[in-house]
Amino acid sequence: MPSRVIPVDPFDLVIFGGTGDLARRKILPGLFRRFCAGQVRKDAQIIGAARSDMTDAEYRALVAEAVREFAGGRACEDGTLDEFLTCIGYEKVDAKGEGGWRELCARLKDDHVHAFYFSVAPGLFGDIAERLRHFGLAHEDSRIVVEKPFGHDLGSARALNATLAQHFDETQIYRIDHYLGKETVQNLMAVRFGNMLFEPLWNAQYVDHIQITVAETVGVGGRGGYYDKSGAMRDMVQNHLMQLLCLIAMEPPARFEPDAVRDEKLKVIRALDPMTPHQIVRGQYDAGIGEPSYRDDVDDARSKTESFIALKCHLSNWRWAGTPFYLRTGKKLRDRASEIAVVFKDAPHSIFGSEAGRHRNILTIRLQPNEGMELGVTIKEPGPGGMRLMDVPLDMSFAEEFGPEAEEVPDAYERLIMDVIRGNQTLFMRGDEVEAAWAWTDPVIAGWEARSDVPKPYDPGSSGPDDALMLMHRDGRKWREIRP
Ligand code: BG6
Q1: N or C: lower Cβ tally within 10 Å for the chain?
Q2: Measured in angstroms, how far is the CA atom of residue 227 from the centroid of ligand 1?
Q3: Does pTM top 0.90 for this prediction?
Q4: Whole-angstrom Cα distance, residue 64 to residue 155?
Q5: What are the structural domains, with CATH classification, of the chain?
Q6: Active-site pick, 114, 178, 209, 240
Q7: What is the position in ligand 1's atom list of the atom closest to the CA of 220?
Q8: Is the pLDDT score of 293 beyond 70?
């Protein structure tokens, strides 16, 4: 069942940092795929803006290379790429000076939506926002897109919010968390709020615990400079895992509208209890055979930054009081596998006796790879021999259900950029959400720093340090296996 494509209004998208890694890997290939799908119209303008001297033709060559490398597919060969390139232009712009701004203004069309993507270091956000205002580009119908990291702590996030607020209204600011653009993450809302089946059970009375795992096989090689100052808590938990937690735990919003959804997410973050050290396990990957350790990767033999974190948190509200949420994420783990598992409580009494064993319903929401959902139900083992029970999955795998078209499911960036053009902020973080998330993580990080906490080493290709397993075992529970 192919997805329905509704073309977006004509737009001009300026990518500050248009020659950078994110633009090459995600933004430009994503736009190309939307162009192929017919969602981006031929009169759209995509303008790279950066410090380097470059002509339109040179930038088009860069874009073509990026698209071939990261978007691939037949469309590159059948002439669509050449058509797409006619939408591309380049302007050398000085983010801290006057150079290039007038020329940039001259390129933009009055009757187009104007969007400005800040794919640059956060230190430049203020300068760019100020110039957009100064040159008349911060008008009512323009919008800006900002990337993570949105601040390093509460203080810096507040300062960034304040800087942007001088030039743009909150309704014009699109803070990207690409996890919100993932297909299954949105499906989570559809499943929760579009069905009668789950919502009555979605609370502490019926749910034993919830596990959220985002496991990666890659290390931090190449990004060590950034990562070593962040660690898994800042890089993944404060944003991506927090957003997943919000969507799993929030109350049904009155409407599927940006502020209604974001109000409910904010309440979840604010309901999080403060953390204590015994609720958290930090890890750092060791060297493997022929593989560098984390410390080699970041070139600091004494680094105390975590490349893995597991934690148990609680929400103080009526729905969730007493249900723990276990979160874990890490680099160089055994598989690339991200999922949310809602583990329901045991039936209150087993009519089949203790020999029937323990059986539980688990709803698994798989983010990647093999996006889909699976509900574990208990049935009778087929055949004679009495009432033996077994657990089988009711499987809703997108790839199987939707056939070959499932490959066309847009990548998170594609979807989010189209939402920017449509002016829909539902899947973007509001300033107060980001600040509330930092307000929760800051004291945890400050505690590590005060105690000079050293992460536990773990083997690359493992499931993280043993202490993370203990975090669950102590509660009589266990992590689900990390597998795709
Ligand atoms: C980024 C983090 O935001 O998300 C990276 O900075 C991480 O460290 C990445 O690798 C994971 O994204 P995805 O979509 O590959 O799960």
Answers
A1: N
A2: 11
A3: yes
A4: 40
A5: 11-147 (3.40.50.720), 180-414+430-473 (3.30.360.10)
A6: 240
A7: 8
A8: yes
